[in-house]
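User: Teach me something about this protein's shape.
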Amino acid sequence: MSGRRSQTDGEGEITPIVILIVSLVFGGYVVFERPLDIGATYIWVIILSLSTAGLFYVVWGFNKARRESGMNTAVSWLFTELNGEPQSSSADSTIEKTPSTPERLKNELRLDRADGRCEYCDEAMDFLEVHHIKPRSEGGPNTRNNLIVLCPNCHRKADRGVYSRSELKHKVKQQEAPQEV
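Assistant: First, the predicted structure itself:
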């Protein structure tokens, strides 16, 4: 039997939100059932300690994600499995991943449309990357209006959700408009 779960079974997945709920339920039970009980058994102390640790882990992780990448990423982190993979639903398994972007199209976008500049921050750079606005994993197509040329810094921010998809689409629309004339 494989140690890896199937993507669609949906059972046994531990996410920070699950840790938060379990910590609050068990910790709350101990606090309300045995408040400052001198005769509390070791098991109650252990449960309360684990609940507190779980609560601190979730609060620390949420704040770290919020500081680094913004509120959307922090909320998304709450529903990410502890192994780093987002929880998947059965609907996700039906989406086919788009093949990688052809080099010809990447070069055309980098040289012709972007003219060697990041389409977000407008910085000239030799090493530009092509980013899918709607990700390939969600079926995002290899079309000019779904691709944006970014410097590595802006590409990392786009991947983390710092730049919204609508912002990126707007930048592409601005770049495409002069070429349609």
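Now, about its shape. The radius of gyration is 23 Å. The domain at 103-180 is CATH 1.10.30 (DNA Binding (I), subunit A). If you'd like, I can walk through any region in more detail.
User: That's plenty for now, thanks!
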